[in-house]
């Protein structure tokens, strides 16, 4: 609740709240989860759930590439706006690779993807001292199958909120 | 390892001259190991004489070692004509040539009054009617498997002219749980998969372990503390320490042949470069300096050169440089990309992982990049490691989908591929040197 009061004092919060009130219905309709699972508290603006669902916590990469794709740039732009609105959050960017590479190269590739993501966010005004990076290489796939549909989901950089430093 | 050393005070004593027999005369049984697809040598390995089943267990380990090498074809015991009653007596050679056993192994295992175990063996050439070798070993009873491996090494060496590799161990990563949240533990086992022991709890992801040359330490990479870094583990005490104090992720650690240095990659932003750290002075030296991923270093056995992988040319390729980082030259030029180079302990070859056409292969090439040979190809083969005699490789194979990796061994000729049995999924094998 302390976080709520912190957020409520922030004028940006009010603006977001109004925006959500207007678009809330439409965005909720697109959610795959049932309403009970989401719950009221997890939909709190400025929360992890808000970030994950309404902004998007991850971007994807082409094979062996660290280039930020246009769809990824759009996600990162939203992340940067959100992070500017909630400046107390530190973040950790987790870089990942798919399984179609060797272990050590993939560790470095994941680190490269995290670094590229960090650089992009920096170009959108998120200072480097708010951002940590870590590479998991191919050690933590989210999708498990034996074809390209999975591998493309695993080549990712995930922005994890490190907690609001003020709360 | 001190405890192990004490209890494992194995020493060989040459038996008296009469037992050792004469030096080889002519036309003795031997295997030319350099020929591809060698016809395995038929060898009869009798149950060692003992007061209990330990004799049969010792000869069983010897037989399994020799069979797995692919160079020997143990003769089915049911075919034996002579039953060895006294291993000190010269066998009836015609009984063994009749079943085409070109070599014969006899022996005994005795529990001494002082509690030690005495194991002795004799190796016979059945067609030349003579003894080729005979030795005895003393050890504590719990080391019976090790004595069996040492005897298998002696037989292998006597018949092939090459050093054996059976008295060696493998450190690897034992895997369990779902692929999306795989638990990974450092583990150690004998080269035949026996005596598996976990070295870490599994709370943190651990990767890419390597033995020190004296087999007392393991360097590896761990995610403990939230940042992936290189660690050093003392096998004897279980003590762990961080290697170096670098600002970013460190990974891909390897010992120098003298055990005094660790070479590894340091990640800074998007680049990985290779550094060497002296373990005594803690001084670090930067060996590569590119805006690329330079990793997987491996020393030549003479310590003069290092082979590594780099994507500085666009894709992962193999490069060789001086141990001080000088004169970096690309050596791999085939189709596809090359990674995880490992210099053979003999110095003559470099093993690697190759990605090409959606397949992952294990192959070898000469240090100048010539003579590339692919040993095995499939959906995903990765991470070769050399047996201490440079004749056999282990690697891991990952099936498509939700399953997990397993460790395999393959002969340098590309024949005799076999799975190494492990309790669960297993990856990142690293073969130990032989104990001198």
From TrEMBL, chain A:
Membrane is among the record's keywords: yes
Membrane topology: Lipid-anchor
Native source species: Pseudohoeflea coraliihabitans
NCBIfam families: Pal_lipo
Protein's name in the database: Peptidoglycan-associated lipoprotein
Domain OmpA-like: 48-165
HAMAP family: Pal (MF_02204)
Entries under InterPro entries matching the protein: Bact_OuterMem_StrucFunc (IPR050330), OmpA-like (IPR006665), OMPA-like_CS (IPR006690), Pal (IPR039001), Pal_lipo_C (IPR014169)
Automatic annotation (TrEMBL), chain B:
Protein name as annotated: Tol-Pal system protein TolB
Subcellular location: Periplasm
Domain TolB N-terminal: 30-132
Signal peptide: 1-27
Keyword Signal listed: yes
Subunit structure and binding partners: The Tol-Pal system is composed of five core proteins: the inner membrane proteins TolA, TolQ and TolR, the periplasmic protein TolB and the outer membrane protein Pal. They form a network linking the inner and outer membranes and the peptidoglycan layer.
Similarity comment text for this entry: Belongs to the TolB family.
Keywords: Cell cycle, Cell division, Periplasm, Signal
InterPro entries to which the protein is assigned, alphabetical: Tol-Pal_TolB, TolB_N, WD40
Function (record text): Part of the Tol-Pal system, which plays a role in outer membrane invagination during cell division and is important for maintaining outer membrane integrity.
Pfam family, one: TolB_N
Alphabetical list of NCBIfam families matching this protein: propeller_TolB
Organism: Pseudohoeflea coraliihabitans
Predominant localisation class: periplasm
Domain of life of the organism encoding this protein: Bacteria
């Amino acid at each position: 609740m302390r976080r709520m009061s912190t957020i409520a004092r922030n004028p940006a919060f009010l603006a977001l709240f109004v925006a959500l009130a207007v678009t809330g219905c439409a965005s909720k309709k697109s959610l795959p989860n049932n309403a009970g699972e989401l719950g009221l508290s997890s939909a709190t603006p400025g929360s992890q759930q808000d970030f994950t669902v309404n902004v998007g916590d991850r971007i994807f990469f082409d094979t062996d590439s660290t280039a930020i794709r246009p769809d990824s740039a759009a996600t990162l732009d939203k992340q940067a706006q959100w992070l500017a609105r909630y400046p107390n959050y530190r973040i950790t960017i987790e870089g990942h690779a798919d399984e179609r590479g060797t272990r050590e190269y993939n560790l470095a590739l994941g680190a490269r993807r995290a670094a590229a993501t960090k650089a992009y966010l920096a170009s959108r005004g998120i200072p480097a001292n708010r951002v940590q990076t870590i590479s998991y290489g191919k050690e933590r796939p989210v999708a498990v199958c034996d074809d390209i549909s999975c591998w493309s989901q695993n080549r990712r950089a995930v922005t994890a909120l490190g907690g609001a430093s003020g709360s | 390892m001190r405890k192990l050393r004490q209890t494992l005070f194995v020493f060989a004593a040459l038996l008296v001259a009469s037992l050792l027999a004469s030096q080889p005369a002519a036309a003795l049984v031997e295997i030319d190991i350099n020929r591809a697809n060698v016809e395995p040598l038929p060898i009869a390995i009798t149950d060692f004489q003992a007061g209990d089943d330990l004799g049969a267990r010792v000869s069983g380990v010897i037989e399994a070692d020799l069979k797995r090498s692919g160079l020997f074809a143990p003769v089915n015991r049911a075919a034996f004509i002579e039953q060895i009653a006294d291993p000190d007596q010269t066998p009836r050679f015609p009984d063994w040539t009749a079943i085409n056993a070109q070599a014969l192994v006899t022996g005994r295992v005795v529990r001494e009054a002082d509690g030690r175990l005495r194991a002795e063996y004799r190796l016979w050439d059945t067609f030349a009617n003579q003894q080729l070798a005979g030795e005895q070993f003393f050890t504590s009873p719990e080391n019976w498997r090790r004595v069996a491996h040492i005897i298998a090494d002696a037989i292998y060496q006597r018949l092939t002219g090459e050093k054996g590799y059976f008295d060696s161990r493998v450190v690897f990563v034992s895997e369990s749980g779902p692929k999306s949240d795989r638990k990974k533990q450092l583990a150690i086992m004998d080269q035949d998969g026996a005596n598996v022991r976990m070295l870490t709890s599994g709370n943190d992801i651990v990767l890419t372990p390597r033995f020190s040359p004296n087999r007392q330490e393991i360097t590896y990479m761990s995610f403990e503390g939230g940042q992936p870094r290189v660690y050093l583990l003392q096998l004897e005490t279980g003590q762990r320490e961080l290697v170096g104090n670098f600002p970013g992720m460190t990974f891909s650690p390897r010992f120098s042949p003298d055990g005094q240095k660790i070479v590894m990659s340091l990640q800074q932003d998007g680049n990985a470069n290779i550094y060497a750290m002296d373990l005594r002075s803690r001084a670090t030296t930067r060996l590569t300096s590119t805006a690329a991923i330079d990793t997987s270093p491996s020393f030549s056995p003479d310590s003069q050169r290092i082979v590594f992988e780099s994507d500085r040319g666009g894709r992962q390729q193999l490069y060789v440089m001086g141990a001080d980082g000088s004169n970096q030259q690309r050596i791999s030029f085939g189709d596809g990309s090359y990674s995880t180079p490992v210099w053979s302990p003999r110095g003559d070859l470099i093993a690697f992982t190759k990605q090409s056409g959606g397949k992952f292969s294990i192959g070898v090439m000469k240090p100048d990049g010539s003579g590339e040979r692919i040993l095995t190809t499939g959906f995903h083969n990765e991470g070769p490691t050399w047996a201490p005699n440079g004749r056999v490789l282990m690697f891991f194979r990952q099936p498509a989908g939700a399953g997990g990796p397993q460790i395999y061994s393959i002969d340098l000729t590309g024949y005799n591929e076999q799975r190494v049995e492990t309790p669960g999924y297993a990856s990142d094998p690293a073969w130990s040197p032989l104990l001198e």
